[in-house]
Amino acid sequence: MDAESSSRPASAPNRWAKHQRILIVGLGVWLLIGSSLVLAFVWPKPKLRAVIEMGFGLILIWNFAGGFVMWRWRDTWLRLATKIPVNWGLKFVLGCVALAMLEEVVTTTMTNCAPLFGVKIGEAYVTASTNYWDVIIHHSVVIFVPMFVGWAVVLHFWKFSPFSVFLLWGLTGTLLEWLYSGGAGVPNFALWIFVYGLMIWLPAHFPPETRPTRNAPWWAYPVAIFAPLLFLPLDLVLAPWLWVPGLLWHTAPHPDRHFPPISG
After folding, report:
1. Fewer CB in a 10 Å sphere around the end CB: N or C, the chain?
2. Domain that holds residue 235
3. What angle is formed at CA 26 by the lines to CA 61 and CA 221, rounded to 5 degrees?
């Protein structure tokens, strides 16, 4: 490389890639330090300690190991995805659903590993049930599907970078956790950005760059945080068992969780 070219400023994409790395590292550091401080604070309380240790399992397996596998072999996954002969929008939704189901494999496994963390099953948990199918069909993935459809619609009208989709869906996930658990979801925003963002980052590469869609204007970014929520009523059609008694193996309404509250 000659002296002239080496003195040129980095291109905008390169600068943006650097900023992405800094943000990801910052979120990871916040996640580890914050979780470690919480673990130290609840250490005398075995049930709460077990919950945080389960959270560390999720962080290490899904956030760090899973995120690395997606990033390191991204091109391989994308080549495999191109061989699926369906519209990119459907491929996007199916990819998000598959990754959300994989994430719940990790969380349900953590709940079932309660004895390894020094408590009985049901005394500490990170999912509503120890039954994987119950978790995804009644509590988690079933709720995400309409919102993945919403993101496919958003990407039909506007182009977002995969990293932007990662962050925006992560912020939506943080909002959902806040609505579900109160203010406890906000300090854990780094956790939820990783947990939710990794469900959508790879599929966000599926929309073709050549599609006749304009780049997202600045105001589309905050809109994209809330727009997927508008598609939740789709579950009336996609998941009627949530509303109609007897369609599956339970009678509605299904319990919010199958365990007693964690008290200490």
Report:
1. N
2. 13-242
3. 95
